[in-house]
């Protein structure tokens, strides 16, 4: 019976760590990462999207049934940064993440 609260806390903490690592990557790494990155985004931005590749693969393979925390963070991040991504479906964005 005590497993449920532990599981809930673990599931709650995972998305928070995703956002924390994204923030740390974009604020601390933007000065050094932006100069070496040809796309103009910071290394933290790339990290969020690249970390979601495994979740994106599961999402595409399951035809959208499996949605991981890394994928959710990357979809939100992409839609915040790119106007074209706001109009794209989750499946389209997941496939673009896999193509990276």
UniProtKB/TrEMBL annotation:
Annotated segments matching region Disordered: 25-47
Low complexity bias (residue ranges): 25-43
UniProt keyword annotation of Transcription regulation present: no
Keyword vocabulary terms for this entry: Signal
Keyword Transport annotated: no
Signal peptide range: 1-20
NCBIfam families per record: conserverd hypothetical protein
Protein name (Swiss-Prot/TrEMBL): DUF2388 domain-containing protein
Species this chain originates from: Stenotrophomonas humi
